[in-house]
Design brief:
This protein is an alpha/beta fold. It has one domain: 2-enoyl-CoA Hydratase, Chain A, domain 1. The chain is built from eleven helices and eleven strands. The strands form three sheets. A six-stranded mixed sheet has the order 1-2-4-6-8-11, with helices on both faces. A hairpin with a 2-residue loop joins β1 and β2. α3 runs antiparallel to α10 and α5 crosses α6.
Amino acid sequence: MNQVKLEKRGCVAWVKIAYRDRPCLLNTSILSELCEAFVEADRDCEVSAVILTSEGKDFCAGADLNELVRGDFEAGLRWQSAYRRLVELIRETGKPVIAGVKGVCVAAGHELVMMCDLVVAGKSAKLGQPEISVGSTALGGGVQLLPLIIGEKRARELLLTAKLLTAQEAYELGLVNRVVEDGEVEKEAEKLALEVVERASPQAFRVVKSSLKFWTDLAMLNWQLARDVTAMVWATEEFKQRSKNFLEKKKTPPQKFTGITPK
């Protein structure tokens, strides 16, 4: 593994995104490495909890636009399938998964955090779903889970305006369990993980987690449709142009919104 590190400290496995100087961008390669790390942690009998975090000052800036703009519809499907596998590993493991977040945590990165059981955020964290600004959809979990977690109108505002939340705002909306100083994120995440594993029956934990998953399963019933529609969006000229502008730090001018009412 080059982009992801798996470390063990006692009964806790640390899955660390190994980007130090910039936020992680999720390409198919790093998604594969994250999957390998979660499979290994899940199968390790000495591991009781998993903490997902980053070595750098930022967590994750979402999907790698450089990869997406070069791809076609089938490439988009492959990215979505790799991402779905990672999401299911996080949601299916019988061990608590805690996210430790600092700095940038947006788009697919924020969706991964929402898939975790519990979340600790540093005060520097910026969280949200800004995909709409580059012509993407937030259908990897943002559209499905945000209304369930924070309510429909608040979710609409975040999804439609691309607004990012501070750690404290995310805490007040219920997206984050604890907010601490950046230097305390790993310590607090480990403390929270141990609160679960030292108090909970593993069997009862699995039952409760599976039962809670029922609600998110309902929200994600459209996953296959979301995968295909998103891959179609990524193959369009509008997405490629807006993403190109974003990567080149150019502002995309406002575009006309069209009605769909038939004559």
